[in-house]
Amino acid sequence: MDLPIANNTELIQPTRAKIFAMLAELRRPAPTDEIADELGLHPNGVRIHLERMQSAGLVERRRERQARGRPRDIWSVSPGALPGGDPPTAYSDLGRWLVKAITSAKVGVEEVEEAGMRIGRDMNPEGDDETAEQRLFNVFTALGFRPEREFADDGKLTYCLGNCPYRDVVRERQALVCSLHRGMTRGLIETLGEDGALAAFVPKDPDEAGCLITVEGPIAESVPAQETGAGEGAGAGEAADGG
Fold it and tell me: Cα 130 to chain center, whole Å?
């Protein structure tokens, strides 16, 4: 994801930037001790940093009960974390070069989507205590899409993506990049094991964001209605380009 360093003073501090990057890379929630061990830091110091990041809206905390002892804190990237939109220039250039290379090789959108599916199959994060839908939501969040759940009366679940971390490359060739993303989503859903399916994939203007990804099946039905804004709908029925 495009880390919110440029527009968020909390992540100017190197340790907090490392913590945020680690959580984004994990694509799943992690306890304080795991974060501290991975970074070679003391848990108490890491907890202070995490609490600062929580106050800034960058991470979320939930309490997890344990068989013995006090509940432990589990941390994840906040769905509302606002990426700065200024990824390192080298990565932006690399994305454009890859798009140009694919175009020069006359690779079609179908081949790109198939490649995306292979990538998506490798993106399923660990976390047996999380539902398949929550793991899907975690991946969208960690990649910087700022997803919001919207549940429809027909049992389908739509994610409205509030940010496009690939927007610089999408401007070059939206059809190719969105096909790659659609394939990644399909591959990820396939590995989650809930007999879910991608019902719709509706790209939008990358600078405005708001792309819609709709899933159906048990993976969608596992989400409590109160978490999704039931009845509001996302207009997912307007197009179905991913099933």
Answer: 15
Q: Do both 23 and 57 map to the same domain? A: yes
Q: Measure the CA dihedral 80/84/89/95, to 10°.
A: 30
End-to-end Cα spacing for the chain: 26
Q: Which domain holds residue 36?
A: 9-77
The pLDDT tens digits for 118-172 are 988 888 776 667 888 988 998 898 888 889 999 887 889 999 999 888 887 888 7
Answer for the pair 83, 161: CB distance below 8 angstroms, yes or no.
Answer: no
What radius of gyration do the chain's Cα atoms show?
18
Q: Which of 53, 77, 101 is the last residue of a domain?
A: 77
Decide if 216 contacts 197 (C-beta within 8 A).
yes
Q: Phi/psi class of residue 209: alpha, beta or left (left: φ > 0; alpha: ψ in -120 to 50)?
A: left
Residue 111: give its domain's CATH number: 3.30.1380
Domain identity same for 105 and 216? yes
pTM over 0.85, yes/no: no
